[in-house]
Amino acid sequence: MEFENYIKFLFQKQGFNISKTPEIRNVGIDLVITKKINSQINKTAVHCKSYKKSIGVAAVQEVFNRQHLSKCSESIIITTSGFTTSAIKKAKDLKVKLWDKTRLVEEIIKTVKADNNSTLSWDEFFAPHLVEDKFPTKKRTKKKSSSSF
Cα–Cα distance between 23 and 77 in angstroms, integer? Predict the structure, then answer.
């Protein structure tokens, strides 16, 4: 939840309007961001994953399928780690944008540099991604398959 709030703040600083998916109705989409670009409103589904392990293909398929429920034209998965090779390939096929830790840091740097009026210091803005325990990463668990006879 804290990581999602941080990503929300980052997109707000970049000029996006944000709506947060209620926790109860979270369908694989954490945020919906909108911005008017060239007189057209772009609506993007964002899925935030604060994990230590690489994100797999299932997350890409899930966010792609769920973007249509949110009436979005595109989707992004943002993680504090990376993506598996199969997830990268599937994202390319489905045109899902992927932000690994490196891309996320680049966006933070770009946003801080662009915001000359920021009341946040560099350390306050950037530190959450340098301090590992700020956003406790979740351990991914495999779902147990249930068989019925």
Answer: 17
Task: Report the DSSP beta bridge partners of residue 133.
Answer: none
pLDDT tens digits for 107-145?
888 887 776 655 555 455 555 544 444 455 555 555 544
Q: Tell me: the pLDDT tens digits for 13-70?
A: 888 999 876 554 556 788 999 988 788 888 999 999 988 899 999 999 999 998 888 8
Quote the pTM value.
0.76
Which residues, listed in sequence order, are joined to residue 26 by a DSSP beta bridge? none
